[in-house]
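User: Working on a comparison across species. This one is Adenylosuccinate synthetase from Hymenobacter telluris. Can you predict its structure so I can line it up against the others?
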Amino acid sequence: MPVDVLVGLQWGDEGKGKIVDVLAPTYDVVARFQGGPNAGHTLTFDGIKHVLHQVPSGIFHPHILNVVGNGVVLDPFVFRQELQKLTDRGIDWAANLYISKKAQLILPSHRALDRINEEARGGSKIGSTLKGIGPTYQDKIGRTGLRVGDILLPDFDQRYQEAVARHATLAAFHNQKLEIEELEADFFSAIEFLRTLQLTDTEYLLNDLLKQGKKILAEGAQGSLLDIDFGTYPYVTSSSTIVAGACTGLGIAPKHIDKVYGISKAYCTRVGSGPFPTELHDEVGEQIRQAGREFGSTTGRPRRCGWIDLPALRYSIMLNGVTEIHLMKADVLDEFDEIHVCTHYEYPNGQQTDHLPDYGDLQTMKPVYKSMPGWKTELQQLTDPQALPGELKAYVQFLEQYLEVPISIVSVGPDRVSTLHLS
Ligand code: GDP
Ligand code: IMO
Ligand code: MG
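Assistant: Here's the predicted structure for Adenylosuccinate synthetase from Hymenobacter telluris:
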């Protein structure tokens, strides 16, 4: 049985959490393969909104095993808080949650370094969530990181002290101190808690489940345009956010991958710094922000808003081998007379391209738009895909033709029931 992978096609916050929740009933396992507490995945059902950061979004379904894979960077303190919140809401997660012993640990000193590094960047800040993601992946790749499995070793405390000493020298380079003493007691009590969970070699667990015919949904975090290799570098996150990351982040061979769900908003947002060619700095951008409640699920920061960018989407689709697209938040555009779609970019000399330009070129190139009529219909009430307004059908059709991938879901509200399955 296969592994299906769900990835964001833009700069994150496309609605991945909602879709994992919608698709979960047809899977046996949901597995997170990268990222960490920088993610904020929102699920809404029965009138309650849940925001998950590190816990996979299948946790609300009692029949589903939830796996935090080796590609994830895990903050034990944030994790315990998240699980406590689930307990308070009556969710019985304990038997259904497995954590890779090979996942990397985010230490308080990683969070401190994230802040120090950002400050040192002056005017070219990444806009990091300051959760310690970059410094933790730096340690992983530098082969100096601490992994979840290390907390079971007798000399864990010593390894921790060595890591902190190393981090202190990095902070000193910027004439800063880590100032983490007050956080350490909480960190160690969260480590104590982590020791009570199901820590295992999840690559074996997942491959055994595959052999038993179980179906796995791999849940991506962030978005393809934040990918460490293919995103708008250096304004990216520090992990492989594309489908390939599911193989390395879970220990699953490519031959097992079947469907690839690409999640995209009907428009586009970005939080943090970096190029965003279709960004709207006017009242239209503000209208999208308000209608879409575009404020970060993790940091509360206002998201930058703009029109959908088809060259960028086509690029993400190519990198991921997307087999179907889920078009999210269509209802946010309900009130618009006119909707713009970026189909090309234009160089200063008038030449056009439908490739996503390099970072340097993006400064000087202008998006070229096609205008389409808005649907001026309240979509949230719709339950029958046949009843979609003609203008929205035309919008969907245009995107499908341009992107050469079917759109199988149109989402028209945050709740799991506000989901129209087109095929
Ligand atoms: P994720 O990080 O990709 O899981 O996305 P986030 O949860 O960070 O952001 C998506 C936001 O849009 C959340 O507040 C969702 O509740 C909300 N949302 C998801 N789908 C829809 C939709 O179709 N319509 C509207 N209006 N909101 C949606
Ligand atoms: P989900 O999974 C949107 C952005 C940050 C910053 C850059 C690097 O909810 O879609 P980091 O903390 O990773 O070093 O920040 O990446 N970013 C996200 N933007 N959604 C996310 O996750 C994000 N995770 C990181 O804003 O620009
Ligand atoms: Mg999010």
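For your comparison, note: The CA atoms of residues 6 and 213 lie 20 Å apart.

User: Helpful, thanks.
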